[in-house]
Amino acid sequence: MKSNIKISSLLMLTFLVTLSCKKTIEVNTLKNLEKPNVIVILIDDAGYADFGFMGSVDLETPNIDKLAKNGVVLTDAHVSATVCAPSRAGLITGKYQQRFGFEANNTGYGDSGDIGLSDDVVTMADVFKTNGYKTIALGKWHLGKDKTDHPNQRGFDEFFGFETGSRSYFPLESPSKYNMLQHNGERVEFEGYMTDVLGDQSVKYIEENKDKPFFMYLAYNAVHTPMDAKAEHLEKYKNHQRKKLAAMTWSLDENIGKLQQKLQDLGLEENTLIYFLSDNGGAANNTSSGGVLKGWKGNKFEGGHRVPFIVSWPKEIKVGQKFNGLSSSLDIFTTSLAAAKITKTDDLVLDGVNLLPYLKGEKKGNPHSKLFWRKLEEAGARVGDYKMVRLQNYGATLYNLKNDIGETTNIETSHSKEYKLLQNELINWESKMMNPLWGEERDWMDVTSHIHKRLMQNKNVLYSNPQKMKEVLMND
Prior knowledge:
By secondary structure, the protein is of the alpha/beta class. It has 3 domains: about 1-35; about 35-360, Alkaline Phosphatase, subunit A, CATH 3.40.720; about 370-475, Arylsulfatase, C-terminal domain (2-Layer Sandwich). The protein has helices at about 1-35, 60-70, 85-95, 125-130, 195-210, 230-235, 245-265, 300-305, 330-340, 355-360, 415-430, 440-455, 465-475; strands at about 35-45, 70-75, 75-80, 135-140, 160, 180-185, 185, 215-220, 270-280, 310, 320-325, 325-330, 370-375, 380-385, 385-390, 395-400. The strands form 3 sheets. Strands 7-6-5-4-8-1-9-10-2-11 form a 10-stranded mixed beta sheet, sandwiched between helices. A hairpin with a 2-residue loop joins strand 13 and strand 14 (about 380-385). The longest helix has about 35 residues, at about 1-35.
């Protein structure tokens, strides 16, 4: 009899413990579901006007346009650099990359060796991982080739992508360590088209992590050169004036559509915070269009750093809006912390602003009163409606963007007070930054200087790469 009582008691105790554990798991699951997933979709070298939601009539982007309708389009949004690597450094750390010397393109040059991200700088992935998120990086890295700069060492549980700045969209026979497609350091041999491969992986990782909050950094190399496109899409656009770009953009849109569909199928769409933007303006060599904007990738005019930018979080932000306030890719880190209710530590320096009160209509006006850009010999400053472009050993021009979005009329002389103000603001900002830890090839710096000078003079640019520069100078 006593034995039966003991067994019954043990069974009851086991049941209660199991029930308690089940309830704990359910509570933890509910807590996890309350936290938003965060996805940053960063595309490469896309033109400001090359999407339907930005006014394009010749490039088809139905899925990206759907994302825009399901969120907020930020019309005065900027990245922190006009070329790939430093722009990514600013986004992933939430601070001006000049604070840690990451100013020139690539991740080192000449005697500097490969430097990449400073070892003591904190990334978004570091913070989200510490706070219970699964962290995943997909696609192009371009933030350092040193072992300490590998995504798995910078807060990402998973990395499926490549370390270098560009590579073929198709398989390589003998890839280097840096341009091979890899999963956590191990080479991945693939068939097909890189944009599809990355899109399929984004869907796979969402499926695998649907029951816990995740931070996904989805960095497509599209539409960066080489201009590789799938044969069927080249056929689809065979009569298109920008055939290759149209085909590459269509593939990109298809794969962003896959991600949207997976989120919807799993019931995650409402509580997933998605950012969509380009790492800089469209490039001079991929037939991209900046629309009314002056300039392109690599220079400090609006076409170099003003980018298409969508923020979507249907659970919290009213859909179908436009927001005209001055904003930055630096804001992604700060905004995401606020969305996830993660408290920023006192020692974490961030230059971004929490956009949520502005996008929810709780605050009016501009998230930023000023923004700055610098890459070696060229710099830019924005204060209110005024914009300055400065070229070392040449001078500076001033524009009123409210009246002159195309930066066609230099008002330096007629607005000397504003000119002096922006000069001083830029100098003051520079005093708080580090000197660049590496430079760039002199030929490319000369090309960039030429482009800035000609655009400042409202003249046609004669060359946009070193080879063409040599040809022009030889015939001059």
